[in-house]
Structure formats: C-alpha cells, structure tokens
C-alpha cells in the first residue's frame, strides 16, 4: 500500500484506493468540462517529469508557475516538477511585473510556466531583467510562446522512466518542495520554504476533520492555487478521492456552482459575506407572508448554536426553517453542498451561524503560509465545532500563548525557513516555535480564538490598545460598508476610513426614492448617506469599550482592489498604503 510521505505520492494513493476516478481533475474549455482521470493525471505528470529530465533539470532547480485561474495543467505540472526533486515556485498572477522579476531572480527559476496571453505580455516586459530564465511555456496556445504540450511530446518516450524512478526514490519527506512568496502588506515578498512533509503532515492531520464520502464527492476549486490554503485543499481532495472541478474565474463562480453542484468548496470570508448579502437582498424584495417567513428563518439562523444547545423547541423551528427557507439557499449553491471551509481571514460569527443553521456548515480554520497552513481547525464531529473560534489545534501540532498574547506554534507543519534569509528565519522561529504575529487565547475547552494581528494593534494617545481587525470585522456587518480600516495610532480617538458598498447604496436610494447623485464621488458626500452609515456605526459601536468606538469616519469614492494597491492578492488590507493614499481623509478626521 502506498504510504504518502511526499506530495507526489497523493495521486498514486488515489489510484490505489479509488481505482481511476474518471473526473479526478476537470477544467472548462469552450463551454465543455474536459475531464482527466487519475490514470491520465499520473501518466501526464510522468511525461512532464521525463521531459524535464531530458531538459537537464537537476535536483533543487526552481521552476515557476503563474496562472490566472486554477486548471488541470497546473496540478499535472506540480506533480511533474516535484517528482524530479526540483521545486515548484508558484507566483501570484496579480502582482506587478517588477515583483515577477524580483521573485524569478530571487528564487533563481530557470523555467516559467504561465496560463495565458495577459501573463505572457507582462512577463515579456521583464524578460531581459531575469538572466537565469531559460524559457517560458504557456498552457494556452499563444503565438510566439512555447506550449507546455511540447513537454508531453518530449516525455512520450519512456526510455528514461528508470532514471525518473531513481530520482523520485531519492526525494525525502523533509526535502524542500516549494517556495511560496508571501504577498506581504509591507516590503519585498518573502520566500517561504515548505518541505514535502510540511504539506503532507498538514493534509493527514485534517483528513478526518473534513467529513465527506470518500471517492464520491466533488469540489469546486476557485481560490488562487498559488496560495497555500487552496493548494493544501487540492492535496486533501486527492487523498480523499474527491473530483476536483476548477472554477473558470471568481466572476463565474455562481454559474460554475450551479453547473458542478459541488459537495464542498473553500472560501474566504469576503466571498461568504457577498453571498449572504445577495440572499438577504432577495429576502427584502419579498412581500407578505413570504417576507415574514424569510426574516423569521434568518433571525433563527443568527441565534444558532451547534449540538442542540438551544433546546428542543429551537430545533423543531429550525427543521421547519430548513424545509421552507434554507433549502432554497442550498439550492442556490448547487443543491449538494455539505461543507464550506473558510480561511485566510477572520470570519464573522453571524455568517458561521446562519449558514450552518441553513444546513451549509462552515468550518473555520486558522494558519499561515509558514505553517503549511493549518494550525487549528473546527470539526463537525466530536463536539469540535465552536462558532467564533478557529477550532482546536490539529494533531501533532503544539500551540502556546506567549506572555504578550502572541500565538506560538511548533510541529511538522512549520516551514524550513525563509529562502536566502537566515536572519529573518531566526527572528520568527525561536526554540522551534514559530512566532505567528497573531494575538489569541485558548479557552478552557481547548478552542483557539484569534483576537488580532500583533503588528496591527496600536495605542491611542491615552495609552489604550486598539485591535483594529476585531472592530473592522464587526463594522462590516453593516450592508453599507464594503471595506473599512480603523485608524488612530497615537491619536486621542479611534476613527475609520470606509469604502461604501456602492451597489447596495444605489439599491437603497432607489427603494427610498432618494437622489444621491450618479457617481461614487457624489454618493460619499451626500448628507443622507453619511447619516445612514453613522446610524449603523452607532449601533455596532455598542459592542465596544468607549476607547474602541469609531468616533469619526470618512468615506472614499475609490473601490478598493488589488490593482488599486489597497488590497493584497489574498484580499487583506495594505494598511500602510491605504493610510498614504487617504492622507487627506486622515488629516480631515484629526485636524
């Protein structure tokens, strides 16, 4: 029986356990799902490996991959690269061309595999700045660019398969597998070195916490696979014999979900907030008894506690709500959804409650790129789910809370270090414990709760500590607030710069027969808009101490985005840059 100790063992384990799954991987092309069986997956990965050996790839060579969307070719190349004892260096497609150059040079990548013409054009602007880069191959057919299918042809001849088997044999569990450059909210990207064991141990530790019928489930993958969260999920799916359908794009998620009818998806909180807002908006359009029933069900959902903690009468009502209302929510997510795994940022507890009440359980986990990623995870079984926490620490991982509240982590999931940066590695890994930079507590039952980022906490001029993430997450419960940054370091009070939800603002203005102007710039200065947002802030402020309350705010007409520089590729706030961009608003608040 195949023992999974290295990343490339996953597809072989799948073949052995579940025979050949016809749709092990599936990508939509020209409106048709092109399916790749487990057998074909392995066969093509081997062809890629044989081709790479013929191209002179040596142990510890670096091969970069930049893909706009998740696709079958990425997974085949991933296994093909790793089998040769080389390392896969995935790069975020949305970063600048200069960042491409920095990562390619810093990692020393000799080849780069890209998805499409947009990336090709971007990479061509910096080709002359990357002397070590021998060639670029594309997954799409692009004039003037070599195609990845050339590797499949070059690797068709199996005469060097023995050489490949010898190379595979020499790959050890603790060998370097990948370097992931974190997007970072400040400074140049850091190359996180992860071994085969880092990722494999993480998958095996959570495999029993994710309940779906092995060999019979479907997953829709659309979060960027260059990010460790989605990549580890792919290996988990492979281990469980789950068919992986790659979403076309974030814009087409709704369409793909209806098409694929997945059993499970991974998501980030921002996406779940948008799904909930859309459902809620539809509810407000209902009339009469239907509207009353909808909001009765929502109210019930917002009070949800797992394991029947609310008593028998609540459970009876919930059963009725699921049949009458929540079943339609489930239908909107394809009808077969059994599980959503949320990560990358803090999830609002109300979303976990209402979706889980709707029989669409959301399991929130916690981790970082440096921890492969999972440190803790909620578990539907064994009373292992506690809303408002990130679950219990996973098997073989140890967590302790430092005197200043920082979460320290030790275990097989902790990275090998930062590539070419021993000094920084030694700063964050002390006595085998990785310093996460997050502040948290472990409750009496062993559940971990994150309260904030250590670096993001600040003091007011009165010496009071502010944890901005906690306040921001609460304020985003207002349907008028799309993005918010809490400010006030060294100032006498906490304040905020807000990007309103312009789509919702327009709908609200139509319902109330109100003219708030035609442009975003007009919306953000309109008296009625400011009054209405103030109302929500006043209500949500009640949850905080006097020093934490948002005393003043300014609205921005910009829609915050990755391209606009306000957000990282994983949709986190670039705090330093936002403060710089909105200096005028900052001064207006504190002048």
Secondary-structure map with pairings?
Layout lengths: L8 H10 L6 E5 L2 E5 L1 H17 L7 E5 L5 H11 L4 E4 L6 H11 L3 E4 L2 H8 L10 E4 L7 E2 L1 H6 L6 H9 L6 E7 L7 E6 H11 L11 E4 L6 H13 L2 E4 L6 H8 L3 E4 L1 H17 L2 H15 L9 H21 L6 E4 L6 H9 L4 E6 L6 E4 L14 E2 L4 E4 L4 E5 L6 E2 L3 H7 E2 L2 E10 L5 E6 L4 E2 L5 E2 L1 H8 L5 E7 L6 E7 L1 H10 L8 H4 L3 H15 L8 E6 L19 H7 L1 H8 L1
Parallel strand pairs: 1-11, 3-4, 3-5, 5-6, 6-7, 10-11, 10-12, 12-13, 13-14, 26-27
Antiparallel strand pairs: 1-2, 8-9, 9-19, 14-15, 15-16, 17-18, 18-21, 20-21, 21-22, 23-24, 25-26
Helix pairs in contact: 1-2, 1-9, 2-3, 8-9, 12-13, 12-14
Outline the low-pLDDT stretches: none
Largest sheet: 9 strands, mixed
- Structural class, by secondary structure, is alpha/beta
**Biggest sheet, spatial arrangement of strands:** 2-1-11-10-12-13-14-15-16
Using the coordinates shown, work out and report the CATH topology of the domain at 9-171 and 207-265: Rossmann fold
Number of helices: 21
